[in-house]
Every structure is written in C-alpha cells, then in structure tokens.
Amino acid sequence: MPHDRDPTLTDDELDTWSAFATVLEWLPPALDAPLAAGFELTHFEYGLLYALADAPERTLRLSVLADYANSSLTRLSRAVSRLEARGWVRREPDPSDGRSTLAVLTLEGLTRFDDATPAHLATLQQVIFDPLTKAQQRQLTQISRRIATAIRQQPGWQPTANAPAPGRAGESSA
Amino acid sequence: MPHDRDPTLTDDELDTWSAFATVLEWLPPALDAPLAAGFELTHFEYGLLYALADAPERTLRLSVLADYANSSLTRLSRAVSRLEARGWVRREPDPSDGRSTLAVLTLEGLTRFDDATPAHLATLQQVIFDPLTKAQQRQLTQISRRIATAIRQQPGWQPTANAPAPGRAGESSA
DNA sequence: CGCATTTACTTGCTCAGTCAAGTTAAAGCT
DNA sequence: AGCTTTAACTTGACTGAGCAAGTAAATGCG
Q1: Which of A48, A113, A138, A144 to mutate to probe the B interface, most B CBs <10 Å?
Q2: Model confidence over A89-104: pLDDT tens digits?
Q3: Using CA atoms, how far apart are residues A112 and B91, in angstroms rounded to an integer?
Q4: pLDDT per residue over A45-54, tens digit each?
C-alpha cells in the first residue's frame, strides 16, 4: 500500500495547499460579514433559519437541526438560545419524547430569514459562482465530496455530536 | 452587466454549495485536531512556526508574519504571546524601527515544529491529496485562486490588517 | 524644528465555541 | 417493577478571536 509517502509536499501540492488554505481562512468571514452587518446574523445562524424555514411546521428537533448544520449539540443549543432571545425561534417540548426539544421558527424569524436571503445569495454568487466556470463549479462539487469523505474517515472523527468516546461500554466494575 | 441575477440558486449550485460548505465547516477542525492532540498547537500556530522556520535568522517582523498568516495583527499578537509563553518564540525589538517587534523562533520552537511537521503533512495527504486525482488537485488550485480573488474584491474587504476605515483622511475639523 | 498624522503594535471587553459535568427522560435488562 | 444505560440536551469554566481604544515611535510638512 503506497500510503504514507515521503512526508513532504511537492511544489504543486504546496501551490494547491497555499491557495486553498487562503480560501479556508478568508471565506468564512466573507460570508459572515454581510449577514452580520445587515441582519444581525452569523452565517451559521442563517443556516439554522434556512433549515427551519424549509421544515414542516417550521419545526425541527434540536438534534436533527444540529445534524443539518454540521454542528455540535452544544454549539446549536447556544445558537438557538441567541435566536430565541431575538424572538426568531421558540423552544417547545417534544410531545413524543420528553428528552427532546423542538425548535420552531417564529413569524419574525421567517421574516428576518426572507429579508436576509437576497443579500446572502448575492454574496454566494459574487464569491463562488460568478468567479467559476460551469465546469469548475462541477469540479468543486466533486472535490468537496471527496474531501468530505476523507475527513469522515479520519481517526477520531465525530460525525457531529460530542460522542463521549464510549471506552468499553458495559464494562462496569462488577 | 448581467450581474445580480434572480436571487436563487439552481439545483446544481445548491449541490455545489452544500458540498463545499460541509468542507468549510469540517476541514478546519480536522486539521487542528491532530496538531492539538499531539503537539499543543493549533493549525494557525503551526503556520506561524512554519513561516518563522523558513525566514532568515528564523525572524520576522510581526506585521510581516501577520501578512503571511492571513491574520489580523490582533490575532497574531495574541498567538505570539501564547507561543512565547511556551518558550517557542521570543519577541525582540526591531533595531531598525522602534515601532516594530520581531518574532524569533527559538530552538525549542524549531524542535517542536520539526516534531509536528510529519503528522501535519500526513493529515494534509489524507484529507486533501490522497482523495483527489492529479487533475482535481490542479482544478482546486485554480478554483481557490479565483475564489480568493473574488473575496478580495468584496465591498468592505480588509486585506489582513484592521484598517480603521479611513473615512476621509485629512479632513480634520478645521 | 515642532506638531499633526500615520504606523505598529497591545490590551480590555465581549462573544462564540469547546470540553466536561450535570440533569432529566426513555430504554433495556432481569 | 427496579436499576443500570443511553439519549438529549444544558450549563459552567475556559480559550481564541474581533473591535475599539490606547501607547509609543517614526514620518511629513510648513
């Protein structure tokens, strides 16, 4: 298996990584800035509103929402609290499971989402789709999928939750 | 100018964005985790050591280092303080300009960098280069450059520093 | 040469995110 | 039915980053 080669990057690889790393560093703030400036939303929070706006009854269980948002439950819980404080989301107990909590998008939240959407889509067009050819766009899809798959296969990869490293389950002291 | 089209994503665009957004969310932690676990370094801090290790005298002015690292001066200043506290970097006054500060990589810092490098390169291979074909790698370089360029052209883009929005310079009250 | 400006940082405040440790509810086992 | 596990969050302590304001040195210019 030709896996762990010489631990060096070729010149080509270095070019690739340096360009890509710059995007990794700059793109998140570039996506956040317009939403923050105009709508008091981070890109992450916008993503939550997006998921809820699309969901039946504009309602999702927190754990499902965390999954959609590629987020830890902790991060989600705090984000929902912020959105709740602004009146854009409401928490409700899940009637079918007392452990779960439902997040419901309020009308104000939906309005805010609708207001923010054009600006956000414009940003995406400007920084992602306009600068790429159709072919490059397709390439980016494939490349992203492959990288995402590789990340999921990393040693200690936790899909989204804070899996408490099960240790050896069922090995109680007895 | 066919610029601000209908504010919607096509299905293709949605596919692209959803795949790419996942990478944007997952890759940074995937790069950080091994460095943090094994070497008490974030990926960002590793980048600083990398830049210093390559520099003449293993020394760079903070502002230059900030530039290399795509970082604000604030972020850099704090990061250097952390590395200094661990004994991996030293601050020195710049003899040629009293305002500047030099960051010098210590021997311990260099050692730490050398120790961490193989693990980090292995991570890069695993999550970026192994999963891509040579062609895709070239495509990623081009795509990244184009996106980075587009970001730089965004309305309020600050290259790296915290440019205090000059307003109208030279327009004092007088 | 003296004073206003600009440059190069540094630091206080605040906020978002993580990890670890709780809490409450459902499931599983016997 | 009772007791241990597991699941679904929530919260406290801590860390890293951003913005705004502050400091100190150099520069510009009249």
Answers
A1: A144
A2: 999 999 999 999 999 9
A3: 47
A4: 999 999 999 9
CATH of domain A22-149: 1.10.10.10
Which tokens belong to B86?
A: 């661990």
Identify the CATH assignment for B25-116 out of 3.40.50.300, 1.10.10.10, 2.70.70.10, 3.10.310.40: 1.10.10.10
Sequence spans of domains, chain A? 22-149
* A162: nearest nucleotide, CA–C1' criterion: C19
Which one of A13, A48, A128, A130 makes the best mutation probe of the B interface by having the most chain B beta carbons within 10 Å? A128
Nearest CB partner across the interface for A128, out of B4, B22, B147:
B147
Classify burial at A10, counting beta carbons within 10 Å of its beta carbon; exposed 0-12, middle 13-18, buried 19 or more: exposed
Quick one: pLDDT band at residue A157, thresholds 50, 70, 90? low
B74 to chain A, any CB pair closer than 8 A? The answer is no
Cα B96-B101-B105 angle, rounded to 5 deg: 110
Q: What is the pLDDT of residue B170?
A: 36
